[in-house]
């Protein structure tokens, strides 16, 4: 106890490493702090000086100072007016790590200056990088499959798209919450590119916006949320199959019906029209252009993305507090890992996102650190060294011990043994009965007989 089970990943982003190191030091400080009875015994002993000298612990005040300095530094990283400001150019390498003077002078710095004029927020040069990447690879590759189809090319195209889907989806995530990612001067491109790229990345037109912004964040994983996990046993393969299956085959109907039930007919019409319109487009492309190319360019990505979205959401809302399940702190989790945060726009900070859906992706680490005490007091769950997909996989395998080792204990969690952590996690994956839903959310939300 007192130390995290795994070493910190070398590929963590700078802000993630800062956050995790502070949490780690706090955990170590808690475990190395002697109990009062131990100190009393030492004071009464003849060799108390020796005993005190053996206890070397960092000062809580020093740790608090480090925390405040870290918050100030992270804020400067995001402030274009600060000398410490750093934009994000690509996901694989941090801007500050690109040291080659010729590369910086002739390529990187001119590119950053140009791209900053295109994006809405100066930190988001990476979004221009990604859009250029997609339009220079995915689009030509897809077109060529329709012109001259080869099986080997089709397979490689799917592999490439599979690699792109996560970052693109989280770019879209920022896009739908902020109503765009490019400056107003490029508003037409900002509105147009999703209609070109969405179907190639497995999304149907505008469905992500209607489901995620207009529905999921309104319901917050509650009983009326179509993607809610509370009615499912989150470590059950059968329950997971039902969860994914319903989304796969019925979301085209469920989402418009949800809007109708909530007296939002315009949203129902828009969501239904976009979904059905996309299916008509796929039908036309399959039957009248090229069935083989359409299968690899559109249908396989669609099938994969639907599974990925539900697998991710299952992991994001797998651990729901049995006492206060409607709390954003207690119904979602935080991941400090490489796939979610380095490659997917800090998607690991899901609790932070639910607390403020309009929060910019670069602000999540500093927001988490600024609210760390509240996270601790609210018994929020933080993991590291695991992403949502492997979290879901380990849950379905009931591998709670590994998940518990990935826990970054905060507050009262620091006192738990590994077995106690396992039991805590098991309690939070339990299916809610309709009686419990009526008690926690209200009878109007329960399906009581």
Automatic annotation (TrEMBL):
Alphabetized, the UniProt keywords read: Membrane, Transmembrane, Transmembrane helix
* Source superkingdom: Eukaryota
Q: Does the keyword Membrane apply?
A: yes
Q: Which Pfam families does the protein's record reference?
A: FA_desaturase
The segments labelled Disordered in the record are 33-57
Query: Which residues does the UniProt record annotate as the domain Fatty acid desaturase?
Result: 151-368
Q: Membrane-spanning residues where?
A: 125-145, 280-304
Enumerate the Gene Ontology biological process terms. lipid metabolic process
The entry's protein name is Fatty acid desaturase domain-containing protein
Whose protein is this, by species?
Alternaria arborescens
